[in-house]
Automatic annotation (TrEMBL):
Keywords: ATP-binding, Ligase, NAD, Nucleotide-binding. It comes from Vreelandella neptunia. It is an enzyme of class 6 (ligase). The active site is at 45 (proton acceptor), 45 (proton acceptor), 113 (for glutaminase activity), 149 (nucleophile). Residues 447-467 are annotated as: Disordered. Deamido-NAD(+) binds at residues 374, 403, 513. It catalyses: deamido-NAD(+) + L-glutamine + ATP + H2O = L-glutamate + AMP + diphosphate + NAD(+) + H(+). This is Glutamine-dependent NAD(+) synthetase.
Length: 544
């Protein structure tokens, strides 16, 4: 009987940094060998290029850089460790999503991903040719069947690898997070392991890339689908699995570390923190600046920013006008002090009045409307962008998904910025996250959570003046956006027809705004952007 130590390298590559990613792989193998006595080290999907590389795959120099990186790995990595790592590759004029096997200084073989996803955020059929054959590699008596991400969801490649003699299935993954996705993955692993009666090793990437965020959760299930090892979510690191050969063809993963299950609020909050941290750091910004209004959205955004970057890299600015309530000013100052960020107060009255004076002749004979409200927001945007330019701080916008869906945001005003941590978070979840965050340590004044939400752009203004309550609004939006239900189907489910038609019309006609909004962390299956692509100009009617 033999045993094997397989180490899952749950790491955060940088897209396009092929030499850097190769160096990370070399160091990880060295550490896995020293710390865990690794026989095998497995990296995530497309690790050398980072995921998703998108149109970088069309660059002629991509293949040259990958070959150089693979040659460096072959020369630097210890010869007694088997390395399985993902990268793209051009073979006979076609580009494939590959998993390569490196041992004894030689690249011993490659597996080409067979199931190429082309839905939600995935666009792999634009770039890759699907593989057609299973790949089984024998190492120290164990027959390893290699798969890549969607192969597992498709299922057919799993059976093909098993039929080809695989005793342990190893899948390389770059599986983006969305709410409930970790549970979906574990259930899928359980079902496939039971179906083919084989243990499965699942290695996932970690970290943020543009709007995508990867939660890790690399794991191993036995042939009965029971979790034997589960790496921490939202943490990079190396996680070992011990395999024991119990018969000629059976390898049993031994029970190891299992990270405790986290509650939904914690998982979502970690996704937002990770996405913001990696976007700012990988983009090279010194930090962030945001407008702190005393409301719930900017309060949650500030807490996320501080947890992601530290208070010394966060600046908050209160920009009051006539309609800004005293309690908003008090709550903003209290939170800034609570979190230890740099805080400034910049009244916008002189700016607004100067603009109104300049516009007075053009506006003569017209009634006051949202134009004047939007002007307040746009003055604030100018101040934040000036601070951004001067200090090298990225402007963090603070609109939630409910408001972005119905267009309750001002172009070139509160939509000004480079990134939005809560862009894909519905308003009801904003409150849930704020309450959860305060259970960890004081971060958001309780009054901010309890008081009715308002944009404070007009006297005594509240969001409920023009929208259904947020419980109702979010339920309608979930049905229409996430569920693709028609207005009639939503009404038939028990919602007020007037509310439904109003919300649906707002969603449809505000696509032009969303196209101009900053990107943000994608945490739902239908995030605005990659997931949900609607024409800006169209004649579709809400009842269709």
């Amino acid at each position: 009987m033999q045993d094997l130590t397989l180490v899952m390298a749950q790491l955060d590559p940088l897209v396009g940094d092929i030499p850097g990613n190769a160096a990370r792989a070399i160091e990880a193998v060295r550490e896995a060998r020293i710390e865990h006595g690794a026989d095998i080290v497995v990296f995530p999907e497309l690790f050398l290029s980072g995921y998703p590389p998108e149109d970088l795959l069309l660059r002629p120099s991509m293949e040259t850089r990958l070959r150089e990186a693979r040659a460096l790995m072959a020369s630097k990595i210890a010869r007694d460790v088997l390395v399985i790592i993902g990268y793209p590759g051009v073979r006979e004029g076609r580009c494939y999503n590959l998993a390569g096997v490196l041992y004894n200084g030689q690249w011993e073989g490659e597996y080409a991903k067979q199931a190429l996803p082309n839905y939600q955020v995935f666009d792999e059929q634009r770039y890759f040719t699907p593989g057609t054959e299973p790949f089984v590699y024998e190492h120290k008596g164990a027959k390893l069947g290699i798969l890549i991400c969607e192969d597992l969801w498709d299922g057919a490649p799993v059976k093909a690898a098993t039929a080809a003699g695989a005793e342990i299935l190893i899948t390389l993954n770059a599986s983006p997070y969305h709410q409930d996705k970790p549970t979906e993955r574990l259930r899928l692993l359980e079902l496939h392991a039971q179906d083919v009666n084989r243990p499965i090793v699942y290695v996932n990437t970690i970290g943020g890339q543009d709007e995508l965020v990867f939660d890790g959760g690399s794991c191993c299930v036995n042939a009965s689908g029971q979790i034997q090892v589960l790496a921490p979510y939202w943490q990079a690191g190396l996680m070992p699995i011990q395999f024991l050969q119990t018969s000629a063809t059976i390898w049993e993963p031994q029970p190891g570390e299992i990270d405790p299950e986290v509650e939904p609020e914690e998982s979502l909050y970690c996704a937002l923190v990770t996405g913001l941290r990696d976007y700012v750091n990988k983009s090279g910004f010194d930090g962030v600046v945001l407008g702190l209004s005393g409301g719930i959205d900017s309060a949650l955004s500030l807490a996320i920013a501080v947890d992601a970057l530290g208070p010394q890299r966060v600046q908050a600015v209160m920009m009051p006008y006539h309609y800004t309530a005293d309690i908003s000013k008090q709550d903003a100052a209290e939170q800034a002090n609570m979190l230890g960020v740099h805080y400034e107060i910049m009244p916008i009255e002189p700016m607004v009045e100067a603009f109104m004076g300049t516009l007075a002749e053009s506006f003569a004979g017209t009634e006051r409307d949202t134009t004047e409200e939007n002007l307040q927001s746009r003055c604030r945007g100018v101040l934040l962008m000036a601070i951004s330019n001067k200090k090298g701080l990225m402007v963090l916008t603070t609109g939630n998904k409910s408001e972005m869906a119905v267009g309750y945001a001002t172009l070139y005003g509160d939509m000004v910025g480079g990134f939005n941590a809560i862009k894909d978070v519905y308003k009801t979840w904003v409150y849930r996250l704020a309450r959860w965050r305060n259970t960890q340590s004081p971060a958001i004044p309780e009054r901010v959570i309890e008081r009715p939400p308002s944009a404070e752009l007009a006297p005594d203004q509240q969001d409920s003046d023009s929208l259904p309550d947020y419980d109702t609004l979010d339920a309608i939006l979930l049905s229409y956006i996430e569920g693709d239900m028609s207005a009639e189907a939503i009404i038939a489910a028990g919602f007020d027809a007037e509310d439904v038609y109003k919300v649906v019309k707002l969603v449809d006609r505000c696509e032009y705004k969303r196209r101009q909004a900053p990107i943000g962390v994608r945490v739902t299956p239908r995030g605005f952007g990659r997931d949900r692509r609607y024409p800006i100009v169209n004649g579709w009617q809400p009842g269709d």
